[in-house]
Amino acid sequence: MSTKSFVVKWEEQELEKVSAVEGVSVEKLQRLLDAGRVVIPRNAKRAKKSGDREIALKAIGPGMSTKVNVNVGTSKDYVNLDEEVEKARIAVQYGADTVMDLSTGGDLDEIRRTILKEVDVPMGTVPIYQAALEKAGVRAVVEMSSDDLFNAVRKHAKDGIDFVTIHAGVNLNSLERLRRSGRILDAVSRGGAFLIAWMIHNERENPFYEEYEYLLDIAKEYELTLSLGDGMRPGCIADASDRAKFMEAITLGELVKRAREEGVQALVEGPGHVPLDEIEASVKVMKHITDFAPLYLLGPLVTDIAPGYDHLVSAIGGAVAGMYGADFLCMVSPSEHLALPSVNDIKEGTIITKIAAHAADLVKEGQRERARRLDDEMAYARKNLDWKRQFELAINPEEAQRIKNSRPSESDACSICGDLCAIKLVREFLKK
Ligand code: SF4
């Protein structure tokens, strides 16, 4: 592992706090941070601006617990700031490690700044949305100037945003691979689609790729973490693991290297829709060609035919991907592919993604023992029919309690077997 000097400097106290949460030594954490293999997104300005309000430090990368991001935000069709704030709040309540505001409707500055004030976890955005939406008319996307793109990044950084998705790997090279790929769904990343349309219309290279040094300068100034987006991510099972995706990933690996050389923290985003038997290869190849940059997965969704249940479809893929080394899972809500999520969709999506992250941690190097302690405690609580402890340990205690109380048992067991409780019976006869 090569070590670089990063712009962000962590206080000893901060590292101690993170290492205690993650159950790793400060030395190991520092080593991984120095190599850029673990990132802790935090905008220096936000840290200062927040005064005595502490912003949680979240270490993302190998050896750390699998993190969960939750996307909130308005659309052009539905704008309700209070609801977006409530979504962010409920996401954090149910364990989101980070929140991203992906708003594309209403007053984007007001929405972003309000959510930023409400959450005490790292917050991310996709600045290209704002650059495009500040242009009027239907052709807004192709009329953005390179300045519009970078100004949007600077504006978000100035506000204190901790990490930004930048689709710098969508370039003329990956576009050529996309043209030849014969995909069904071409591109499904919104930011990626904006840039594809822009490059074709303007017959120019993507400014985020062409002027990457300038992007790094902004990132350095604000200690902004770059989340290198996967604009070429496959949007259906048929399109998974093709050359367009991996061409982009190769570029992202090069961009990670350049970010590290400039002391900028960077992570890499991954697919998308991937069948179960391709997840291992997908994660491992992404990891290797990006020199083990933290890997942030949007899914992966393991089938296309379950609209309404895509949070479950994504959690299946997320758990498997986490087992093979994915570090950061993006929540998918039940309303994926159908509608802007409701507050309850965000809650359900967050909980199921946390379950996927924990399932991955149970088999993940460095987190196995810590995660196992929780499961073992639950097993003992079950053995003792200690319902209070079971609820305390549950990922969603209220739901567990609600179900238990909805069909109570006359015995101290539950109403599935009642007096015939297998645990009780065997425990009695084994005299344990
Ligand atoms: S009653 Fe049946 S399901 Fe309920 S705790 Fe006992 S063994 Fe488990």
Written account of the structure:
The structure is a single chain. An eight-stranded parallel barrel has the order 1-2-3-4-5-6-7-8, surrounded by seven helices. The protein is 51% helix and 7% strand. The chain has helices at residues 12-22, 26-35, 44-49, 81-93, 108-118, 127-133, 140-143, 146-159, 172-181, 190-202, 207-210, 212-222, 243-261, 276-289, 310-323, 343-361, 368-383, 387-393, 397-406, 422-430; strands spanning 67-72, 98-101, 123-125, 163-166, 225-228, 266-270, 295-297, 328-330. The chain has 432 residues and is α/β, with parallel strands linked by helices. α14 links the parallel β6 and β7. It has two domains: 40-366, Radical SAM ThiC family, central domain (TIM Barrel, Alpha-Beta Barrel); 384-430, no CATH class. The mean pLDDT is 94. α4 packs parallel to α16 (343-361). The relative contact order is 0.11. Bound molecules: iron/sulfur cluster. Residues 413-414, 416-417, 421-423 line the site of iron/sulfur cluster.
